[in-house]
Write a structure and sequence with these properties.
Helix content: 55-70%
Strand content: under 5%
Distance between the termini: 15 Å
Low-confidence stretches: none
Order of helices and strands: HHHHH
Length: 103
């Protein structure tokens, strides 16, 4: 149940507010990246638990940054994500990536 709230949170943050609200954790980030890949018409990126969030971000953002098919506000929250020290991908992030891709 909690996982299903993440895509709604990202959607609200990028659609409702005048200025998009920032993503607050790695689950929201991976969800947003999944959404962006779907909008761009790209295959869902592979993701494994245990890697650094920054590493995943570095690998995935070149394909969506500046992509005209990805909503600008979604790109903005992804590119402006504030990384936490030693932040790692966990199983929840893998789930929310897929949920965002299917949203």
């Amino acid at each position: 149940m909690v996982h299903s709230l993440i895509p709604m949170s990202v959607d609200i943050k990028t659609r409702i507010f005048e200025n998009p609200a920032r993503l607050v954790n790695a689950m929201e980030l991976t969800c947003a990246i999944g959404m962006a890949y779907a909008q761009a018409g790209l295959a869902m990126p592979e993701l494994e638990s245990g890697i650094a969030v920054k590493e995943f971000w570095n690998v995935t953002t070149p394909q969506i940054s500046g992509n005209p098919r990805v909503k600008e506000r979604l790109q903005q929250v992804i590119m402006n994500y504030i990384f936490k020290k030693d932040e790692k991908i966990d199983d929840d992030c893998v789930i929310t990536l897929a949920l965002g891709y299917k949203f």
